[in-house]
């Protein structure tokens, strides 16, 4: 597996994976991915040879010196789940947030125990509950936060 910047040519494959993973909750469209890349969000792609098998995105907002980051998405093709790809992508996103000395926020389905456990292992704590956050399923989401880390705390 290799990890690099997400390219525009990868968008169609991201949409395929979105439909596989999030069919009941409005999977992202090609336009949504294009907008994220155009806005300058930090997006990564995981490849098995030349095949895109996962992606992840981090948005950065705020004035210099007072930045916040938000994990917008992490997706891994179901055929490749359980191999550490999501963990590798998350760690790269967190490393970028650490470079910026920024806290990291995210939303995750309350019934996605595997994802919640992954985030908790990486220092996230639950700070809120968003009722019926995911549509059209109406699933609830936890809002989670990881404080900014610098120096020896990072990583």
From TrEMBL:
Location in or out of the cell: Cytoplasm
Q: What is its EC number?
A: 2.3.1.266
Query: One short Pfam family name for this protein?
Result: Acetyltransf_1
Q: Give an example GO molecular function.
A: protein-N-terminal-alanine acetyltransferase activity
Q: Which UniProt keywords apply?
A: Acyltransferase, Cytoplasm, Ribonucleoprotein, Ribosomal protein, Transferase
Question: Where does the N-acetyltransferase domain start and stop, copy by copy?
Answer: 1-149
- What catalytic activity is recorded? N-terminal L-alanyl-[ribosomal protein bS18] + acetyl-CoA = N-terminal N(alpha)-acetyl-L-alanyl-[ribosomal protein bS18] + CoA + H(+)
Q: What class of enzyme is it?
A: transferase
Chief location bin: cytoplasm
Asked if the Swiss-Prot or TrEMBL record annotates the protein with the keyword Ribonucleoprotein, the reply is: yes
Q: A Gene Ontology CC term for this entry?
A: ribosome
Family classification: Belongs to the acetyltransferase family. RimI subfamily.
What this chain does, per the entry, is described as: Acetylates the N-terminal alanine of ribosomal protein bS18.
Q: What is this protein called?
A: [Ribosomal protein bS18]-alanine N-acetyltransferase
Organism field: Amycolatopsis pigmentata
Q: Give the source lineage, highest ranks first.
A: Bacteria, Bacillati, Actinomycetota, Actinomycetes, Pseudonocardiales
Q: Write the gene name.
A: rimI
